[in-house]
């Protein structure tokens, strides 16, 4: 196992221009930096190991595990997280293969687009798109979901909304969907409100994804499940390391911030989805206790459990979430021994809401399993 010094400087700089472009399939608010995931994977696991991430989010740990020669067992309750991770774990091997699939499905939707009705589409969804573009997106989304074409579906979700011409919506923000009609009124920018071809933009997106495409060994095991971390089941002693970042309670509204993409994945009530994420210390600890009980039996003896935990701001008194986890582990019959705690201050550039009072600090809390496997 690598014993290089682990320090936040290893992931302090931007990695957008150096990381695999497969990480950039689609935006995901609050995701772990790929450079941090790489450092943790190299430090706390070895090549050939099986890594588990029960809160996989956009699949950063999952993809970096495969790139680093580790197998991955991942899960998440969010359908958006599930699609992104499935896409990263099993993409088409070549750009030509991906473009061929895009051509095939875009040709099929030409026969379906005119039959798509917008009467049942909520007005807030319709407000983002030219009607013809929206019909194409709905038709393509439906067929990709039916065929379980996760890579193409993730690419489509990745270009769903933004103000740039290469995206499908009217002028909009990139991460959280809201229209920017005040900044770009239709009277001054009529070209931004015209029909946008899905096929052209989807293929352009695919080409960007393959710009820095990684080698992923087909021999490495990989699996992603859409389950709650409290109910995850792991084969006894099969996992070498758990590396994960649980949801930062009350800091981010994961479903609300992805509500437009979730609608195209069949989630009409995003508020119900957000209620599944704990927003207070009591519920957070209940979730984490059950998750750790399930994880414990799956981790081999001397296996590692690495949790990236974010501070949560409540009024003027922040909550040290890492300390809550450490105390929970002490008081439970889970034989994970605390090995080290690494504190990392989150600069403004890495925060989704840069002027907010929520997550300004995070901790990497490292445990090792003792006793019998």
Task: Write structural notes for this entry.
Helix 3 (79-89) packs across helix 7 (150-158), helix 6 (131-147) packs antiparallel against helix 7 (150-158) and helix 11 (281-298) packs across helix 12 (321-330). The model is unreliable at 348-357 (pLDDT under 50). This protein folds into two domains: 8-90 and 221-369, Rossmann fold (3-Layer(aba) Sandwich); 95-209, no CATH class. By secondary structure, it is α/β, with parallel strands linked by helices. A hairpin with a 2-residue loop joins strand 6 and strand 7 (317-319). It has helices at 34-44, 60-67, 79-89, 95-109, 123-126, 131-147, 150-158, 198-209, 259-264, 270-274, 281-298, 321-330, and strands at residues 50-53, 71-75, 222-225, 239-244, 299-310, 312-314, 317-319, 336-345, 361-369. Strands 3-2-1-4-5-9-8 form a seven-stranded mixed beta sheet, with helices on both faces. A two-stranded antiparallel sheet has the order 6-7.
What order do the helices and strands come in, and which of them pair?
Elements: H1 34-44, E1 50-53, H2 60-67, E2 71-75, H3 79-89, H4 95-109, H5 123-126, H6 131-147, H7 150-158, H8 198-209, E3 222-225, E4 239-244, H9 259-264, H10 270-274, H11 281-298, E5 299-310, E6 312-314, E7 317-319, H12 321-330, E8 336-345, E9 361-369
Parallel strand pairs: 1-2, 1-4, 2-3, 4-5
Antiparallel strand pairs: 5-9, 6-7, 8-9
Helix pairs in contact: 1-2, 3-7, 4-8, 6-7, 7-8, 11-12
């Amino acid at each position: 196992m690598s014993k290089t010094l682990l320090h936040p400087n290893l992931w302090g700089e931007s990695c957008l221009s150096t990381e695999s472009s497969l990480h950039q399939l689609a935006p995901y608010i609050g995701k772990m930096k790929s450079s941090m995931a790489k450092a943790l994977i190299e430090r706390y696991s070895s090549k050939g190991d099986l890594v588990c991430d029960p809160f996989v989010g956009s699949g950063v740990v999952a993809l970096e595990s495969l790139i680093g020669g580790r197998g991955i067992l991942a899960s998440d309750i969010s359908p958006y997280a599930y699609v992104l991770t499935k896409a990263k774990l099993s993409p088409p091997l070549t750009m030509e293969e991906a473009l061929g699939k895009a051509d095939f499905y875009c040709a099929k939707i030409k026969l379906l687009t005119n039959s798509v009705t917008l009467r049942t589409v909520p007005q807030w969804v319709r407000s983002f798109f030219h009607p013809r573009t929206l019909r194409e997106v709905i038709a393509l989304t439906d067929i990709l979901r039916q065929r379980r074409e996760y890579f193409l579906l993730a690419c489509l979700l990745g270009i769903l909304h933004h103000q740039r011409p290469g995206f499908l919506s009217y002028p909009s923000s990139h991460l959280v969907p809201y229209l920017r009609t005040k900044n770009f009124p239709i009277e001054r920018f009529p070209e931004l409100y015209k029909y946008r071809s899905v096929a052209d933009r989807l293929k352009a997106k695919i080409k960007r994804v393959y710009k820095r495409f990684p080698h992923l060994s087909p021999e490495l095991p990989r699996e992603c499940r859409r389950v709650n971390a409290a109910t995850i089941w792991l084969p006894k002693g099969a996992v070498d390391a758990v590396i994960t970042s649980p949801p930062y309670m009350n800091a981010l509204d994961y479903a609300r911030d992805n509500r437009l993409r979730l609608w195209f994945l069949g989630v009409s009530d995003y508020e119900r989805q957000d209620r599944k994420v704990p927003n207070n210390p009591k519920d957070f600890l209940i979730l984490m206790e059950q998750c750790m009980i399930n994880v414990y039996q799956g981790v081999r003896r001397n296996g590692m459990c690495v949790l990236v935990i974010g501070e949560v701001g409540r009024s003027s008194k922040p909550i040290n979430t890492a300390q809550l986890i450490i105390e929970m582990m002490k008081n439970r019959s889970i034989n994970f021994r605390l090995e080290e705690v690494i504190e990392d201050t989150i600069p403004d550039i890495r925060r989704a809401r840069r002027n907010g009072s929520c997550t300004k600090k995070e901790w990497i809390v490292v445990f090792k399993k003792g006793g019998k496997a």
